[in-house]
Amino acid sequence: MADAPTPTPQRIALLSFPGIRAFDVSVITEVWGVDRTDRGVPAFDLHRPAADPAPIPLRGGLTLTPDRTLAWLTRADLIVVPGLDDHLTPAPAPVLDALRRAHARGTSIAALCGGAFTLAQAGLLDGRTAVTHWNLTPLLREHHPRVTVVPDALFLHDNNIWTSAGTAAGIDLCLHLVRTVHGAETAATIARSMVTAPYRTGTQAQFIERPTPRADRDEDALASVREYALHHLDQPLTITDLAAHAGMSPRSFARHFQATTGTTPLRWLIAQRLAAAQKLLERTDLPMVEVAGRTGFGSEVTMRQHFAGHLGTSPRDYRAAFRQPAGSSPTAS
After folding, report:
1. What are the HTH araC/xylS-type domain coordinates in residue numbering (predicted)?
2. Is the pLDDT of residue 200 over 80?
């Protein structure tokens, strides 16, 4: 039997122009620019298109050298726009024009942190919902009043455009974009290599309350609850069950949980069930009803509803897209 053809690597464009943040450039490069094929991660084709081939100075004495012209954007599957050192920095007109053309073609575009300002300059966020660093929300609203700016989310999706909050949220969005194309296991392998959390939902709050000695004690109890829940996902856990395990009332438990994690107990539990189901669908041939039972959804119908609502696909389609051949599971970093 002839060998299956090698899939074409996903083409990623790190849009490059003066004023972009070195941190975001590093995040994009770390996620898509490192060869991890020995751990089962697919190869990526990452390039740095720019309007001008001259080296671009970055803050901290670093330099970024473009390796493609803006014409390469016509070949890109995904364009990632770094944040800005000065959030009102005007992007070069050719960059804005290239972004508009790419969006008209249906190319996916993602902006990290203040990169939302660049998309707004191009008019791509007019009439759409977007997010940026919480501290920049008033500035984005003031200068781009046609954008609906959400004040408290890690990342958002609107009509093939992704925006994210600041710094670490850019990592969350990049890993999420990997997950949507290549599956949860690939994203988890990259996260392990980067020593970062493999999955935080976009709806999670950008920041949590400042810890206090009492909050530290509560966090210890809540960490125990989360560990307990992860080992009992197959059970019909309720907020009352989890609160009892923490030794709190349900109302107090819910308040402390959100204060220390940035999300509600129910949203967190659904996210963990989805992540567990994704892994089983990728790694095993278990029947759908058993996957639903092992991950606590209770029925295939309920699991399908959550996949549609949170992942935009069905469990069967997810398995068809991301099922790994036997013996090909990525290894730990």
Report:
1. 223-321
2. no
